[in-house]
Task: inverse folding
């Protein structure tokens, strides 16, 4: 199995390491590659969009044609995961911040996201969260977005206060938090198995 | 973009998890270092007003540094350089959606607390401003907001990490448009990490003792003045920490660096980065990202310059891209010869 991590900006290396660990735990042979260029995602079996600045990542993936490759991969039923900034990019509808900054979205999950939903960095937090199919998880939220509304085909995996913070639409998984910053591989393992959908 | 009429609040039917506020943990090391990791591969730009901040955001900056003057102008103006006017910082915070950083003077806890209260996302305890404390930096673990600090050597970097810095940047020589010092600092830090990896484990504690000795300076001066000799392991030398505790703490940081083969926090390049090629050079030397100070808004075409530097950082290992984005950018900032600066004019010697 070949997993690509979109490597234009953000915590790319953390996702690469976590995915390698998760593959090993699952006993799946394969490689994990970070990519800043077009042509790699389309030749992969799964793709991850990391955390970072959604405005920056959006500009760079649309400029370099990586965006189209992610959309094609998702449409072919292969697992796609986005964390934090990655969740924003996967969503169909943004808030006024997304619009104001002209951030282009991939539109792969029928959700409505709010950027910086919990506030600025001093309001960033860690919390034990119940994640469906995974269990209790130490979730790290960093200037995190949240999902305000979900469409009919979206499965809600975790909620926090009045927000949805993890959601899945078929093979596409979006998280408002950062499993890649912890030592817990369970969410990455769950993601890698989404191709069995 | 318009709301889709088919949207439903289906999560209301799901079991909504209510969390007590006490269960949320704020300002942990994971959150602070995590914030810095989200900046990797990005460009952080110095801005002095809302208009510049918007140009930076549109160009793809991952964050902006809110200042009242860019380092080149701070240098030219002379006098005491302090924290920027909070009104100015607030205007910049209100203008953009990306993180906003701001600088406080080295050791100036009150400026740092004020910046934290403003809602700044990261504080740069910076040698570009006039230091407030010649003995100590801020004990950054006592803040919820993460800090970035400059370093010229592994010793400086390790001390700042032990104090709780979530990000390190080279000091370089800010406001000169001359990349030579940033390259030097990156090479010195990388060289020291290589040396550390070659060192037998029993020698590492010696390095920790050497690096920690800086914290004993104040106590040493006081004791010597009183005829009591040098600071010892059990003396409380900085905040509530004894010298022994600091040595042990620094030893732990060194072991982590040795195992990882790099700093355990994000390491950016800063201080004199002026062109897209400068930025690419620093990335090739192993920087996780780049701060650009005076380089952008002292150039003749800031929006194009800002975009070119963002692209150069993303494609730092593709020479044809660096060549393309560097074409016809207009004048870079004029720049200064670092070697002609007097000791007092050098900002990098502040805060060791």
Result:
């Amino acid at each position: 199995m070949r997993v690509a991590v979109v490597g234009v900006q953000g915590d790319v290396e953390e996702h690469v390491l976590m995915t390698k660990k998760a593959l090993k735990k699952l006993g799946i042979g394969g490689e994990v590659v970070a990519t800043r260029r077009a042509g790699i995602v389309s030749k992969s079996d799964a793709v991850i969009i990391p955390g970072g600045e959604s405005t920056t990542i959006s500009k760079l993936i649309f400029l370099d044609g990586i965006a189209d490759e992610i959309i094609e991969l998702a449409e072919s039923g292969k697992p796609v995961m986005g964390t934090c900034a990655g969740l924003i990019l996967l969503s169909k509808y943004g808030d006024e911040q997304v619009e104001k900054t002209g951030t282009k979205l991939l539109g792969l999950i029928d959700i409505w996201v709010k950027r910086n939903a919990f506030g600025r960095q001093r309001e960033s937090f860690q919390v034990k969260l119940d994640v469906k199919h995974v269990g209790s998880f130490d979730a790290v939220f960093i200037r995190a977005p949240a999902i305000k509304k979900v469409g009919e085909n979206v499965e809600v995996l975790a909620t926090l206060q009045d927000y949805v913070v993890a959601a899945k639409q078929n093979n596409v998984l979006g998280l408002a938090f950062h499993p890649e910053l912890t030592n817990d591989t369970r969410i990455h393992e769950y993601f890698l198995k989404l191709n069995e959908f | 973009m318009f709301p889709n009429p088919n949207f439903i609040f289906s999560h209301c039917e799901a079991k909504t998890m209510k969390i007590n506020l006490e269960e949320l943990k704020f300002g942990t090391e994971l959150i602070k270092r995590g914030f810095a990791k989200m900046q990797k591969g990005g460009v952080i730009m110095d801005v002095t007003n809302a208009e510049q901040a918007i140009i930076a955001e549109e160009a793809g900056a991952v964050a902006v540094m809110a200042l009242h003057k860019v380092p080149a102008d701070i240098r030219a103006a002379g006098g005491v350089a302090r924290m920027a006017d909070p009104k100015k910082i607030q205007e910049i915070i209100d203008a953009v959606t990306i993180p906003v950083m701001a600088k406080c003077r080295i050791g100036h806890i009150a400026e740092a607390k004020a910046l934290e209260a403003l809602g700044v996302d990261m504080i740069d305890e910076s040698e570009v401003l006039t230091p407030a404390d010649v003995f100590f930096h801020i004990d950054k673990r006592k803040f919820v907001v993460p800090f970035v600090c400059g370093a010229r050597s592994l010793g400086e970097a390790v001390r700042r990490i032990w104090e709780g810095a979530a990000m390190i940047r080279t000091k370089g020589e800010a406001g000169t448009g001359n990349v030579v010092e940033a390259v030097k600092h990156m090479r010195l830090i990388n060289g020291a990490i290589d040396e550390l990896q070659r060192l037998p484990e029993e020698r590492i504690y010696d390095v920790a003792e050497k690096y920690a000795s800086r914290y004993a300076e104040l106590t040493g001066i006081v004791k010597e003045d009183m005829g009591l000799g040098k600071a010892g392991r059990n003396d409380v030398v900085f905040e509530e920490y004894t010298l022994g505790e600091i040595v042990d703490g620094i030893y732990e940081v060194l072991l982590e660096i040795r195992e990882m083969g790099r700093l355990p926090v994000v390491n950016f390049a800063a201080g004199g980065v002026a062109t897209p090629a400068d930025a690419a050079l620093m990335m090739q030397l192993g920087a996780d990202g780049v701060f650009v100070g005076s380089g952008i808004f002292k150039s003749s075409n800031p929006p194009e310059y800002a975009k070119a530097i963002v692209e150069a950082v993303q494609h730092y290992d593709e020479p044809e891209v660096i060549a393309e984005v560097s074409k016809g950018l207009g004048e870079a900032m004029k720049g200064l010869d670092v070697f002609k600066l007097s000791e007092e004019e050098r900002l990098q010697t502040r805060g060791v």
